[in-house]
């Protein structure tokens, strides 16, 4: 029996804007197994969150629309599924933790009522029983004095506690897969570590799949099993986490890693990738990273590289991946 929970194949999403058609997701493919964490990395605007929204079926349409590909969840294509069937899967089998917890939570409902609503709607519980389950869930994600705090509103919690409530909400119906979209944004370093440790613990406890969307390579080092790096709507590198950190096979990934502050480089100027990501309405021909790439040659400006097989379980969309690895 296959262990694959989510299999995204050649997904394409476009936004029609005044400046033209923005190809926000341009042929993305990845898969996630039960009990596995896939980290999706990249700068803002690379298409990470749009991919997640398309998977969840919550893409703003218009202006966005899925123009191609498949999103298979346990073998069933979510993109061709009726809205009622998809609604039954969303929340119960496939859940999402949103980037801004304060905006995602209803400001005029207590957190206990919002968590309990999941049980009332999906499992037909009474309000009293649903609240009791909500309190247990808040306790599970380590919110102190959960029984008392269930009657509080979102603005009465700190950023880290609000993010724990979002995790509790995603976890309420014990889904098979959770997509966490920048779950540590705007949190201090200590709280970031606590949230990431909690997600890893819950993943192991429930043997669920986890897609972790982030722009911070440092956040996922100890949590992810595999990494998919996105740039300009495409995946440019995939690899097991330790192999990618040890030897990146794409110049963009290498640049991201070199831009992380390190104690052994104290006093040196921090590296930064030159230039800016391209506009998604005018992605350059060839490799989209070529205007910023230190290895770019003529072929990079004319021929778009496929995802080359670098090693078992590894891929790089770079014509000169061997040079990047130091093998060329």
TrEMBL record:
One GO cellular component, as annotated: plasma membrane
Lineage, top-rank taxon, reads Bacteria
Provide the topology term for how it sits in the membrane.
Peripheral membrane protein
Write down the InterPro entries for this protein, in alphabetical order: AAA+_ATPase, ABC_Ni/Peptide_Import, ABC_transporter-like_ATP-bd, ABC_transporter-like_CS, Oligopep_ABC_C, P-loop_NTPase
Q: Where does this one sit in the cell?
A: Cell membrane
Looking at the record, the residues that make up the ABC transporter domain are: 8-257
> What is an example of a Pfam family matching this protein?
oligo_HPY
What keywords would UniProt list here?
ATP-binding, Cell membrane, Membrane, Nucleotide-binding, Transport
Gene Ontology BP terms: peptide transport
Gene3D superfamilies given in the database record: P-loop containing nucleotide triphosphate hydrolases
The terms under GO molecular function for this entry are:
ATP binding; ATP hydrolysis activity
UniProt-recorded name of the protein = ABC transporter ATP-binding protein
């Amino acid at each position: 029996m296959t262990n694959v929970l989510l299999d995204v194949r050649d997904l394409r999403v476009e936004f029609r804007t005044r400046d033209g058609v923005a190809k926000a997701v341009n042929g993305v493919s990845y898969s996630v197994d039960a009990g596995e964490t896939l980290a999706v990395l990249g700068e803002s605007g690379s298409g990470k969150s749009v991919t997640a929204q398309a998977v969840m079926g919550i893409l703003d349409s218009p202006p966005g629309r899925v123009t191609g590909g498949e999103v298979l969840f346990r073998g069933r294509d979510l993109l061709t599924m009726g809205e009622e069937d998809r609604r039954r899967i969303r929340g119960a089998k496939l859940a999402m933790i949103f980037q801004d917890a304060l905006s995602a939570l209803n400001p005029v409902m207590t957190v206990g009522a919002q968590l309990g609503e999941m049980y009332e709607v999906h499992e037909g519980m009474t309000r009293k029983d649903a609240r009791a389950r909500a309190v247990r869930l808040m306790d599970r994600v380590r919110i102190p004095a959960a029984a008392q705090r269930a009657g509080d509103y979102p603005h009465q919690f700190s950023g880290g506690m609000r993010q724990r409530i979002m995790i509790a909400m995603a976890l309420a119906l014990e889904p098979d897969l959770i997509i966490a979209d920048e779950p540590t944004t705007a949190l201090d370093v200590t709280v970031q570590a606590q949230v990431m440790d909690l997600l890893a613990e819950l993943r192991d406890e429930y043997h669920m799949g986890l897609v972790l969307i982030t722009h911070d390579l440092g956040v996922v080092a100890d949590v992810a099993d595999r990494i998919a790096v996105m740039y300009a709507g495409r995946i440019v590198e995939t690899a097991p986490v330790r192999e990618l950190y040890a030897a990146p096979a794409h110049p963009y990934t290498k640049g991201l890693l070199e831009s992380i502050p390190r104690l052994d480089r104290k006093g040196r100027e921090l590296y930064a990738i030159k230039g800016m990501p391209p506009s998604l309405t005018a992605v350059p021909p060839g490799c989209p990273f070529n205007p910023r790439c230190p290895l770019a040659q003529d072929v990079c400006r004319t021929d778009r590289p496929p995802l080359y097989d670098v090693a078992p379980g590894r891929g790089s969309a770079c014509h000169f991946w061997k040079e990047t690895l130091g093998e060329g």
